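Troubleshooting log. The previous structure file for this entry was overwritten by mistake, so regenerating from the original sequence record. Sequence copied from the archived sheet and checked twice against the printout by T.R.
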Amino acid sequence: MLPRTLGDLRTSQFGDEFHRTRTIKDEMRTNLIRKLQDKRPIFPGIIGYEETVIPQVINAILSRHNLILLGLRGQAKSRILRDLIALLDEVVPVIAGCEINDNPFKPICRRCRDLIAELGDRTPIEYRSRDDRYVEKLATPDVTIADIIGDIDPIKAAKGGHAIGSEHSVHYGLLPRANRGIFAINELPDLAGKIQVGLFNIMQEGDVQIKGYPVRLPLDVVIVFSANPEDYTARGKIVTPLKDRIGSEIKTHYPINIDHGVAITEQEAWIQRNSVRAILVPEFVKQVIEAIAFKARGDQRIDKRSGVSQRLPISCLENVISNAERRSILAGEDQVVPRIADIYSALPAITGKIELEYEGELKGADSIARDLIRQAVQMIFRHYYPSTDFKQVIEWFEMGGHLKLSDIDPAASVLSRLERVQGLLDKIEPLGVKADSPAGLHAAAGEMVLEGLHSMDKISRSEERGFAASDRKVPGSQELYRDYTLERNRYKKPLN
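Regenerated output below.
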């Protein structure tokens, strides 16, 4: 049973000298050391930062620093800041009714000091959980000093019979309400300069003036920030005195390899759905989706200052699964197996996540997205087939072979057509497809091989509404057809 009065608190586990004088930074440091000793994960769910960002965050906390995370969008900055609450105690005692979570043994607000003077050991105590001790604010240009620090409340002054300049008349802002906790500000450069000045004054001297009245607020708080490094010098800036008072500046990054990216996307995407159909996403489809983001981040037609968020492959995978789910519903199949065709159907999840440079604007977002998919297919195809000979498959097209696939064709129908291509299905084993694998996986793997050959200009494919051969156009239904044939004079080019 937790103590409910100040007198009981003095004789409890919270009443020893260690708990009485410990600051929030000491608390986080102590809990972090315990986790490191027990070899427990510090930031579970954060993938790819084990050797880069996480050690730097750990060092900042061990150093009792305020910190800032610098990185482009979609680099888990906000998630890391929110996960810091795991380093807080489960509960801490505060004086009941206190707006700023006052330490019962070291109260800083006038109301609590007066209450203890009046009631002594009978002063009521309540508790704040970890979640209660985390306050987050998105910085916008319209944020005022009253929002962050506080303001004089004339109604409170009138009701209580206090002078306007009295501490009893103050309505506290977000920062004082984060006392004995963590205060996070996202997109710091968007915060007006005068607000930033108010922040570093609190951080350094522990005091502030509210409407011309000096108020002493020696807050016990960890202040953490996030910012886009481009915004650092473009849209806004961090005032020099505040930047100087931030102990650690830590730079985040995008996944450094495809495997990390796939793991993040699998973790965050809505894959396991409330569906009666089993969802089976081939590994090579996940890798192609992830490779789209990798190719986009290096494409000169895409604005690198904006970055390409990890939300791109997450949203794309969800759309890909949805298109495959739509197909399985229409075809009455009991499995949902995405194919490469489904990635092209997920263009809306790609085009909205990229900011184009002038050259890209001229070509259009759809055209750029299709080109990125083709590059991604080629990248993954080369990984699975570094030196495989596809001469037999290419010769089938050279002899006049023609293949038409629709994105809503059931797996059995697609597979029956792929079987006509000489030697094609003999090449799908490197993609992880076994003889006893479901038909949907065989169909997806066969289409991956065709798309890979197309991406390397070994065969050609037309894609438009209705049936389309390489040399003529015939109107058809409103399905998305994929027409594979030979790319004349190019089939002799090497795979590598």
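The two ends are 71 Å apart (CA to CA). Archived copy saved in two places this time.
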